[in-house]
Amino acid sequence: MGTTPDKGIQLHDFNNLTKTLSFNMYDVCWTKSKEEREAYIEYIDEQYNADRLTDILKSVTDIIGAHVLNIAKQDYVPQGASVTLLISEGPVVEAPTEAFEESPGPLPESVVLALDKSHITVHTYPEYHPNEGISTFRADIDVSTCGEISPLKALNYLIHSFDTDIMTMDYRVRGFTRDINGNKLFIDHDISSIQNYIPEEIKHLYDMIDVNIYQENIFHTKCKLRKFDLDNYLFGHTKKDLRDDEIKDITKKLHHEMDEIFYGKNITPGSIGEH
Fold first, then answer.
1. Which of 12, 123, 220, 255 is catalytic?
2. Alpha carbon distances (Å) from 234 to 63, 84, 135, 244
3. How many CB atoms are located within 10 Å of the residue 181 CB?
4. Do 203 and 195 contact (CB within 8 A), yes or no?
5. pLDDT tens for residues 2-60?
6. From 118, 135, 150, 161, the catalytic residue
7. Contact, 195 vs 204, CB < 8 A?
8. Which residue of the set 146, 150, 223, 256 is catalytic?
């Protein structure tokens, strides 16, 4: 059973559905030397330290209309950070109709909607290839809510919060709730694709693939940046500092790295998916 803004479902007592969005982003960089690699990791740790990540998650909390109950945050040595927010129900008001539409959510502004005790987490994973000069940064964010609003409404803001080469997104609705007649509802809103929650101007920038299991309420979308400018991937120098053969070699290695992340498997050079 689906719902539309003008055809709501009257629930029995509390909405027991759990809606979870997992947002994973990757940034890929070429670091020519050990010193550049260490400088890149230091830069990432500073840009996405626990304090800044906390601010991002607080904005997500505002977008989905929740209150922060508790914050746990930690910067790690030698690299990485984690933040967990326990959140609770916001003021009980009628959810605006756009909360149920398959459409991008707002950028930071207050949207008050009902949800129950839930949580938001983020973990970062800077890392590097031992030989090839490739460094990557990954951030995993999970937004898990109960109540009327879907955490997909925070996706637009999350995309704008990170400089992202590759994104993978998973959304799942678990459990069931009941209407006033006792009938089980395993999902309380219409959804055909996570892509419908991403603005058109963002979708134009990425190649996208969907893998959805509709009968299980499981949705997966992955995105890879279409435009490639080598200068955006060089840390500490530009193409002007490189020979033509170096440009060709580095470009090939960066494409290979991004293809492997996008397809989720090791790829033999020259096989499908390789540039």
1. 123
2. 35, 32, 10, 15
3. 7
4. yes
5. 444 445 555 555 677 889 999 999 999 999 888 888 899 999 999 999 999 999 999 99
6. 118
7. no
8. 146
Contact 151, 143 (CB under 8 A): yes
Interatomic CA distance for residues 54 and 61, integer angstroms = 10
Residue 20 CA, distance from chain mean position? 11
Is 146 noted as a catalytic residue in this protein? yes
Residues contacting 188, CB < 8 A, separation 6+: 3, 9, 11, 15, 17, 148, 173, 177
Catalytic (active site) residue 220: no
**Separation CA 22–CA 122 (nearest Å):** 10
Whole-Å CA distances, 228 to 54, 215, 222, 234, 244: 31, 37, 18, 12, 17
Task: Give me Rg for the CA atoms of the chain.
Answer: 21
In this predicted structure, what is the pLDDT of residue 275?
52
Residue 94 confidence (pLDDT): 45
186 residue type, one letter: F
Q: Can you tell me the distance from the alpha carbon of 253 to that of 269, in angstroms, rounded to the nearest whole number?
A: 10
Q: Highest mean pLDDT range out of 5-9, 62-66, 219-223, 264-268?
A: 219-223
Q: Please indicate whether residue 22 is annotated as part of the active site.
A: no
pLDDT in tens, 234-263: 998 899 999 999 999 999 999 999 999 999
- The whole-angstrom separation of Cα 76 and Cα 43 is 14
pTM of the model: 0.81
